[in-house]
Amino acid sequence: MQTYIRTPQDVFINPQRLMVPLFQRPYVWELERQWRPLWEDVSRQADVIADGRIQELKPHFLGAVVLQQGALSLGGLAEWSVIDGQQRLTTLQLLLDAAHAVMEEQGATQAAARLLPMIRNAESWTKVPEHQLKVWPTNRDRGSFAEVMTAQPPIEYGKLKHHGEPLVNAHAYFAAAAREYVSRDPLMRGDALALALLQGLQVVVIQLDMDDDSQEIFETLNGRMTPLTAADLIKNLLFQRLAKEGSNTEALYETHWRAFENAFWEQQVSRGRFTMARVSMFLSDYLISETGEEIRPSEVFRKFKLFIDSPAIAHDLQGWLAHLAEHAAAYQKLVLASQKLDGNIDQVALFQYRLQAMDTEVFNPVLLWLINPSLAEIPARQMQLAIASLESWLVRRMLVCATTKANNRLVLDLLGRLRTEPREQAGDTVRDFLAAQRAITAYWPGDAEVKI
After folding, report:
1. What is the mean pLDDT of residues 376-400?
2. pLDDT score at 224
3. E strands within 13-70?
4. Calpha distance 401→281 (Å, rounded)
């Protein structure tokens, strides 16, 4: 591992491909928090140069990126895997390309020529069209990135296929800002902006050798310091492991993980004082249902890492990932059914709706165990009995204002009992378990108490 301080010119000048692994999160930078502050930093640097105060130029620090060297191929482009810093590298490419397009448009051809080698690999290095781009983002962003980066200026953003997506919006913002800056004196201000972009910024580049443990470094940089979700970290871990096994990670991502990256799974949901993406909440509940252990939101990734290290999972990680995707699809179907505004819904979907209406999803891990598609299907009458018992216990305790402080413990004990009893008798098991509770924190209120 080697560490360097580099300008954008240093980072991008060589023919290369900086590849963002498919298992990293998509592009998330936005106008107020990242694009505008970055442009303000760049324009300030350009002003110093334009005012002839270049001796006062002090490169602005942007942060760190971590790159891992890929396998070398004779006569091919050097490839680096972007372990961390993909948001910075992608944004810098969008900014450089937008500025280049504006300079061409405004007649600042010399300044534009300086930027071109930073955003395009020469034709002599490109075997397929995508090789011309120096940064290649994760699967979800490739279409919009390639479209806006290869669009011919002047770009009509509203006519692009990916109009409105974050990468296109970023390019449009930087183009508008650069146009306003350069148009007042295209030659002089174009040169100043080009120099500011190439030499007025700095990043710390950490270069890893092929045998360095990139996953450990990724966790250290992100899991403890930045707001990556549990799902982001779990996704990274899973596909790193699968890649080391020699699995076809592109195919596995498309088949088993891509479905998690939509509005349903990315919606922020609340539970108690915690708010997180639904996919992270699902993974937490799934893990509880599988292990029968209490798992706090802050512990999800660490517990998941231990879970997939177990011999049964580690031996067939692909098979387990397929099971997870199937289980998630069953849960999504259930939640969507519970949100229907008209027509009939079955008892399980109605229970899911009522859990949400009561603002309590304490029984979600039990529900996941009951609908687990990789286990034997529970007979309809037993499923109805299980759901009716859970709902009655929960509603009756709410009506008598019983304490909820031990609910999590009760769920774990119930999951433990369910795993030891025949699955085809799950309804009897749930009913008998709840009926046997005597403690004030867990008893099932009777009719007489509810009627008071």
Report:
1. 95
2. 41
3. 16-19, 60-69
4. 27
Report yes or no: 115 and 194 within 8 Å, Cβ to Cβ.
yes
Torsion over CA: 234, 239, 245, 251 (sign): positive
DSSP classification of residue 120: B
Highest mean pLDDT among 8-12, 80-84, 343-347 belongs to 8-12
Contact 46, 38 (CB under 8 A): no
Structure tokens, 249: 């990670």
Cα 415 from Cα 344, distance rounded (Å): 30
Give the angle 146-151-154 at the CA atoms, nearest 5°.
150
Q: CB neighbours (10 Å) of residue 422?
A: 11
- To the nearest 10°, report the CA torsion of 367, 369, 372, 378: -90
Determine the Cα–Cα distance for residues 115 and 303; give it in Å rounded to an integer: 46
**What Rg, from alpha-carbon coordinates, does the chain have?**
27
Which pLDDT score, from 0 to 100, does residue 411 have?
A: 94
CA distance 335 to 210: 43
DSSP assignments along 128-184, one per residue:
SGGGGBSEE--HHHHHHHHHHHHPPSSP-GGGSTTTTSHHHHHHHHHHHHHHHHHTT
Q: Give the helix/strand (H/E) hosting 412.
A: helix 407-420
Q: What is the mean pLDDT of residues 239-255?
A: 89
Cα-Cα-Cα-Cα dihedral sign, residues 354, 355, 358, 359 = negative
- Which of 92, 105, 94 has the alpha carbon at shortest distance from 170? 94
Q: What is the pLDDT of residue 211?
A: 63
| pTM as predicted | 0.61
* Single-letter residue type at 252: L
- Hey, what are 350's tokens? 């109605």
Of the CA atoms within 13 Å of residue 247, those in its CB half-sphere come to: 19
The 10s digit of each residue's pLDDT in 352-363 is 999 888 888 889
Residue 348: what residue type?
V
Q: What is the DSSP string of 340-381?
A: -SSS---HHHHHHHHHHHTT--TTHHHHHHHT-TTSPPPPHH
222: pLDDT strictly greater than 70:
no
Q: Where are the alpha helices (DSSP H) in 164-256?
A: 166-182, 186-199, 214-218, 230-244, 249-252
Residue 205, sorted as left (phi over 0), alpha (psi -120 to 50) or beta, turns out to be: beta
300 or 297, which is more confident = 300
Q: Determine the 3-state secondary structure of 271 from DSSP.
A: strand
SS3 33: helix
